[in-house]
Amino acid sequence: MFEKIMLRIAMTGLVITFFCGISGAVEASSDSIMKSIARKVTKQQPDAPVSDCPPVAFLVRHPHSRKGTNATMLGQRPKQAGSAIRVYIPNKSDKTIFETGKGFIFDMSVSYDGAKLLFSYMEDVTGKAQPGDAFHIWEINTDGSGLRQLTTGPYHDGNPVYLPDGRIVFTSTRVESFSLCQDYLAAALYIMDGDGGTLRRLEYNTLCDVTPWVMQDGSILFTRWEYQDKNIFSVQGLWTINPDGSRVQLYYGNTITIPNSIYNAKQIPGTQKVICVMSAHHHLPIGGIAIIDRSLGLENPAAMTSLTPEVPYHPTVGEAWHHKENRSWGPGDVFHEWTYTDPYPIAEDQFLVSYGGAYEDIEKRYRLYLMDEQGTKTLLHEEPKLSCFNPVPLMQRPLPHHIPGEVPEQPAGEGAFFVQDVYQGLLEAGVQRGDVKELRIMSQLPKKYNTEGMRYQDHYPVMGVTTYYAKYCYGTVPVYEDGSAYFKVPAGVELYFQALDASGKEIRRMGTVTQITDGETQSCIGCHESRFQTPHHNSKALASLAKRKPDTITPPPWGAGPIDFVKQVQPVLDRYCAECHHGQTPPHSVDLSGDKTRMFNMAYSTLTDRRLVDYYYINLGPTGNFPALQSGSRKSRIVQLIEKNHSDVNMDDESRRRIYTWIDSNALYYGTNDISRPHTLGGRDTWFFVKDNQRVTAEPEPWFKAFHDVWQNICTDCHGEFVNMDMTQWSGRNVHDSWINLTRPEFSRVLNTHLSKKAGGKGLQREKDGMASPYFETTSDPLYQAMLQAIIQGKAALEARPRMDMPGGQAIAQQRDFGKLY
Fold first, then answer.
1. What does 670-729 look like in DSSP terms, one character per residue?
2. DSSP-derived pairing of the beta strands 495-500 and 485-490
3. Which end of the chain is less congested by CB atoms within 10 angstroms, N or C?
4. Distance CA 314, CA 31 (A)
């Protein structure tokens, strides 16, 4: 043991040198360093420890062939079919108990008595499968008998695990929604009887929840992938939920940035620790093996100890809660192929793993190893050509605690939340008692259709310049003088809350999501307080809890519903702002009219392009908790202009609250992910079209082609290309997207910037690189007229096929196949 400890110290020193040293010499030698570490902790021949290993069942097949998170991989077509389940008795024998040539087994788990296996299996992945076939949950005895299929239907089911009462929890695409940023399916946890009956949804995340494991206390540990106004590279962390759908809560790692994902976490017998895979966000659940001791802190990177330091994931939290230059997440999304996956704890100091030989001079395929708490691994079993995955020990395990209760048959209904003192977690951030008057109740809506077109701002369909989501505002509930709140919310939906001041501006935003089940009551101490904090005694709040009924949500005056800029905010701007801020030359170039741009309208483009509102683009968004008093409406310049610079307009309270609520929703534009222009850029593009709404490369609208021809002749030398005309790749925001006004073409910036002042334009005349800009003395100029007439045709084309932000916009239904292989 002394030798192992010393070896571990030496290994750690090497890793510290690797991460801290950034000279070319260190980078050049990093691969050899990692190989050296791997060789020191690997025993390639079975020896004494193997005799202590119980029989092991495992999968034999080719590796997964495509990128994607563990959830989205469930619907991906394997590159090569064929799988087998084998049982291996160390140093004795191995036996195949199930084999398929056309099918594929995704993953597998074992019963508590070691006598049965659950596995997710698709019978034919060769492209000749029958309609409706998909990955389903199957069961088999470990002697090869009793094979039976437990789930059916046009949905993918995976990650099955037995509960102590014989029921089964698993991941499924039965949510009937899609991944937000990848061309694949969404998934959530479901629960069913041991024979496949009484199948019900367990939780209501709108993205993907995967790899469940039953903890000794009876709760279900799982990996949750969710975005709530935060960076897409914030960790897919660990959460727990009870088998009746109650008490969903963070287990570990909501602000970790390296690694980007934590998968396949399992509790280590006899401890409160879990073992897991550290992996990337956009890749397979393969990487380093770590042990998490959450008693050291739910967000403390020191709580995650790597057993495989040769895999360069150095647990890290974001450098700052939010900053456009924050790149601390970058190394967390690097894929380390042929490393580790599928850890399974046998004892406190003994684990099964699958390892591909990344840092060793052996043929790259996944073999089964035993690993100890020092990271030393001993070869257990290998196949001549194929890889070995999902090792599970065939031994008796103690049953976890059984938590009674049934999942409601329908998600409808409501539950209640009790906050003892919202100021716990806020006072130290500068909030004063009495500042918080209400909580705003928000939800994020599932994505109805898949990402099947080119992305705009990394979004399809584009919802705005910020978020992937359509968001829903239910309204507000009161916070009392003692800081307590007790209120009802709808069950079976994804929820988050915002603490508001007396004017309706955000004091603090919840940077993650929660849920509640029908009839459940959840409680918390305060707002972003430490999970290890003991609540102070608030007898008044507790007494009022016993006496009063929970408050109901008061909808906003404009009505509960999706946040929609055109319906909610534009009427306010039309009433108070657009009379001055529109036209050929609006003051300070701030156009707050509702005139349509390429994707949005002039007001939205102006407010976001000019950063007049505080918002968070998801690719560079927050990686940490939202700090109090530092986000949303409280930090937005437009709010200061309304309240101070333009106080003479005397905007009414409801109008201000409309704007504040929109900003605090992260300033999205569309209230629906329905689209009328499928397969165009962002699903909303007015400049390009696709033939027959098919998934083909978009072509420029005839009017835009005519406009662009003029631009090429007179504008390119100074301004460059107006847009990428071949449309072969997704696009970020384009500086020119709001230069064309498709409602009042004569107000287009592209026309009026170089139009003389006497003709109503800005009259700009500048030279660049010795070349004079075009100058239109009057609107009769032939080049001016050529562009104007093209844009007028663009207005007619848009009115003939309105977008979803316009009256008459007609949604075009897209494919909704939840058992599809991609």
1. -S----SSTTSGGGT-SSEE-GGG-SS--EE-HHHHHHHHHHHHHTHHHH--SS-TT--S
2. unpaired
3. N
4. 16
Please give the Cα distance from 563 to 618 (Å, whole number): 18
Cβ atoms of 482 and 538 closer than 8 Å:
yes
| CA dist., res. 419 & res. 529, Å (int) | 11
Compute the half-sphere exposure of residue 311: CA atoms within 13 Å on the CB side of its CA: 32
Question: 259: cis peptide before it, omega within 30°?
Answer: yes
Q: Give the residue among 102, 202, 119 at the shortest CA–CA distance from 158.
A: 119
Phi and psi of 730, rounded to 5°? -65, 155
Element (H, E) at 178: none
User: CA geometry: angle at 262 spanning 260 and 268, to 5°?
Assistant: 155
Kindly report which listed range (182-196, 454-468, 733-747, 759-773) carries the lowest average pLDDT score.
759-773
Q: Which amino acid is at 310?
A: E
d(CA 749, CA 738): 8
Read off the tokens for 545. 């809890």
What's the start-to-end Cα distance of the chain, in Å? 49
Total-model pTM = 0.91
Q: Which pLDDT value is given to residue 11? A: 34
Which residues share a beta bridge with 118?
109, 139
Closest CA to 359 of 389, 391, 337, 378: 337
Contact 441, 489 (CB under 8 A): yes
Helix or strand (DSSP H, E) at 158: strand 157-162
Name the pairing type of β-strands 414-419 and 521-524: parallel
Q: How far is CA 489 from the centre of its chain?
A: 23
The one-letter amino acid at 152: T
Q: Fill in the amino acid letter for 688.
A: F
Are β-strands 83-89 and 56-61 bridged in parallel, bridged antiparallel, or unpaired? antiparallel
The shares of helix, strand and coil residues in the chain, as percent rounded to the nearest 5, are 20, 25, 55
pLDDT for res 46: 47
What pLDDT band is residue 14 in, cutting at 50, 70 and 90? very low
Contact 505, 705 (CB under 8 A): no
CA-CA distance, 126 to 32, in Å (whole number)? 40
